[in-house]
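Quiz preparation item.
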């Protein structure tokens, strides 16, 4: 067995110890647990490699142990990714679950000859030969390593805290070396015999992470690791002389008999056990003085404390800053803050770091604290209370149960704010005179800062009350304003409705005075003639009766238009649309208007395809709109023709009313769909028009969704084309 054979075992031991210490420090923490499981996988890889190396002369055993190597190695990438998620404080995701599935698949495959088979022997060791599924495993391995480093890099870029950035750097560096040196172990699987540097990666990884834990407080096990290192160094310091003594005794006296052997071991072991506690204490003192730096510069501590306390008015941040300074300067195991309630004479825990006690627990104030220590601003030393017997047994039991060695009063003039509770030092040294003076200074500065924070909090509290009052007042004003605005809107709405009704009334009176008067007067005059004493021929009687009928129809049409406009101007006017057969509707309307066209000697034509899709429309109102356009075309066409044309386009049906009548000027065409508007040439051609027909048509078509009506083209003396566009119904296949 040579150094190369032992190296994996040494690395495995160090990785396991580090992972175990991290786990035992905080078993419930996700980051500690995932780091421990990842460390176990690396430990298993290194230990099984060690077993493979020492059995390299036996091919079957070497293959057996190498398969065990892969039983742990297949989980290393996903466990590293799991630890990374815990480190960057992200939830479990699909990539993690997929990684565990891949790992279990490769675990099963690693048991077969399709993963590794045969043995490759080289100068420094042995390795099984990679097969097809081993190549896929390497792709998975590299992929998850890349994803992990990418997540770590993104996390590092977002960090603002210098401590967290330093922690991330060391974790990044440790894993970088582990996964750049470690994968060299795969080269022999492909027939490349290299010196097994890869097995140093576990040791290097442990050293880097240990340094980060000690210097950067990574995973919160700094104290445990320090004490463990001191214990290991003390153990080695005792063990080496014991082994040397045993070796020399064996060389000099040739210890071969079992009784003599046991006697010599007993003689060596007893002194070693006796001297070990003293050696350990000595190394703790050395470590605390030179490595853990209990020697602090008072001026630097005061300057640092002043700088940090002046930059905050938050009690929480003050507690954090003082705790950190006490841990860094005195290396106290635990630090806590007890806030004092002057009304109830009680202490409640405001901040606890390390003390094994419930954070919400409340303690009664002891009179001795005020009389002997607090008012004088001295530090309360548990040992002094015990020796002087000035404090009550209740106070002493309280301090001892908490593990408190020093309590620093937080006083400002005649006011007590609380106490700082400090445990023993890591080294076990007592707090000297210099330490107590320094703690009194820290207590005074902390008390001033806490009082300022409390005053600031009270001011903020009053400010918040005032803001709350202002908000409530504003809310009431807003509610009243909202109510007034609501009433104003109702009044405005009623006013608009009233104006609309007045306008409708005015429009009606205007129509009544201009349009109804003429046909009524004509009917009255003709009726007077017929009922008079004058003798009329039958031909004259028929002519007068025909005039009365025509004017009556005209009067009925005007009344119908007025009622339609009144209905459409109301807020309740809605159209109920349904699939309508536009082809049948157009055929019926053209047939009904043929007699009227024939009387005027005008050709009324229908130009529609054999098939037209159904349209979404209100049949009753659509018929009224189209009839208005046909009526206008017949009225204002003296000779020629009127054509009702229909065609289908994508998603729509177009209906066109084309006449060869008097046409419309461009100026009149822009406002022809307005209420009571008629073209100037139309007025001279047909005096009885109301100017409501096109307005009604526009209102009806606009009431249909996605429908339009417009003047397609017009020219004075050459006719006009009106176009209606209606949405068609989609036909089922």
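Solution:
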């Amino acid at each position: 067995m040579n150094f190369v054979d032992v190296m994996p075992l040494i690395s495995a031991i160090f990785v396991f110890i580090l992972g175990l210490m991290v786990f035992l420090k905080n078993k419930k923490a996700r980051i500690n647990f995932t780091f421990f499981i990842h460390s176990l996988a690396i430990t298993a890889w290194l230990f099984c490699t060690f077993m493979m190396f020492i059995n390299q002369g036996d091919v079957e055993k070497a293959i057996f142990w190498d398969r065990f190597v892969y039983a742990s190695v297949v989980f290393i990438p996903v466990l590293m990714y799991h630890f990374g998620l815990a480190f960057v404080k992200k939830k479990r995701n699909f990539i993690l679950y997929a990684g565990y599935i891949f790992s279990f698949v490769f675990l099963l495959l690693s048991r077969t000859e399709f993963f590794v088979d045969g043995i490759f022997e080289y100068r420094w060791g042995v390795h099984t030969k990679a097969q097809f599924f081993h190549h896929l495993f390497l792709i998975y391995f590299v992929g998850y390593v890349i994803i992990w480093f990418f997540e770590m890099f993104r996390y590092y870029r977002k960090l603002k805290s210098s401590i967290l950035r330093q922690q991330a750097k060391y974790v990044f560096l440790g894993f970088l070396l582990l996964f750049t040196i470690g994968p060299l172990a795969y080269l022999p699987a492909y027939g490349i015999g290299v010196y097994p540097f890869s097995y140093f990666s576990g040791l290097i990884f442990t050293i880097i992470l240990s340094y980060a834990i000690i210097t950067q407080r990574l995973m919160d096990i700094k104290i445990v690791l320090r004490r463990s290192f001191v214990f290991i160094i003390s153990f080695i310091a005792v063990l080496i002389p014991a082994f040397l003594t045993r070796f020399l005794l064996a060389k000099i006296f040739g210890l071969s008999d079992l009784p003599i052997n046991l006697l010599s071991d007993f003689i060596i072991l007893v002194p070693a056990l006796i001297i070990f506690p003293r050696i350990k204490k000595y190394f703790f003192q050395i470590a605390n003085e030179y490595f853990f730096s209990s020697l602090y510069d008072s001026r630097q501590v005061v300057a640092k404390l002043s700088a940090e306390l002046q930059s905050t008015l938050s009690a929480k941040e003050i507690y954090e800053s003082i705790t950190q300074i006490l841990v860094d300067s005195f290396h106290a195991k635990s630090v806590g803050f007890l806030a004092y309630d002057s009304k109830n004479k009680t202490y409640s825990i405001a901040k606890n770091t390390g003390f094994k006690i419930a954070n919400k627990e409340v303690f009664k104030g002891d009179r001795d604290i005020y009389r002997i220590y607090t008012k004088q601003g001295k530090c309360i030393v548990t040992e002094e209370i015990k020796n002087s017997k000035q404090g009550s047994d209740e106070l002493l039991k309280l301090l001892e149960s908490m593990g408190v060695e020093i309590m620093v009063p937080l006083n400002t003039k005649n006011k007590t704010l609380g106490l700082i509770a400090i445990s023993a030092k890591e080294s076990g040294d007592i707090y000297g005179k210099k330490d107590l003076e320094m703690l009194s200074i820290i207590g005074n500065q902390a008390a001033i800062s806490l009082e300022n924070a409390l005053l600031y909090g009270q001011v903020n509290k009053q400010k918040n009350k005032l803001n709350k009052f202002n908000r409530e007042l504003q809310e009431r004003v807003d509610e009243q304003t909202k109510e007034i605005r609501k009433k104003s809107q109702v009044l405005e709405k009623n006013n608009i409705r009233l104006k609309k009704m007045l306008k409708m009334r005015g429009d009606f009176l205007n129509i009544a005075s201009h349009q109804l008067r003429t046909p009524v007067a004509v009917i009255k005059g003709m009726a007077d003639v017929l009922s008079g004493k004058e003798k009329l021929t039958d031909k004259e009687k028929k002519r007068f009766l025909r005039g009365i009928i025509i004017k009556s129809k005209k009067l009925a049409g005007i009344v119908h238009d007025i009622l339609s406009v009144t209905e459409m101007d109301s807020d309740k006017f809605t159209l109920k649309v349904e699939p309508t057969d536009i082809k049948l509707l157009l055929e019926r309307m053209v047939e009904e208007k043929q007699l009227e066209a024939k009387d005027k000697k005008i050709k009324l034509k229908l130009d529609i395809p054999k098939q037209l899709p159904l349209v979404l429309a209100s049949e009753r109102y659509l018929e009224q709109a189209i009839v208005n356009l046909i009526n206008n075309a017949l009225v204002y066409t003296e000779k020629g023709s009127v054509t009702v044309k229909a065609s289908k386009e994508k998603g729509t049906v177009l209906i066109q009313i084309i006449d060869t009548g008097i046409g419309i000027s461009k100026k009149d065409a822009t406002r022809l769909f307005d209420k009571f508007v008629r073209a100037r040439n139309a007025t001279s051609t047909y005096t009885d028009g109301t100017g409501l027909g096109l307005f009604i048509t526009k209102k009806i078509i606009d009431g249909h969704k996605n429908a339009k009506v417009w003047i397609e083209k017009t020219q004075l003396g050459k006719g006009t084309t009106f176009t209606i566009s209606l949405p068609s119904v989609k036909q089922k296949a």
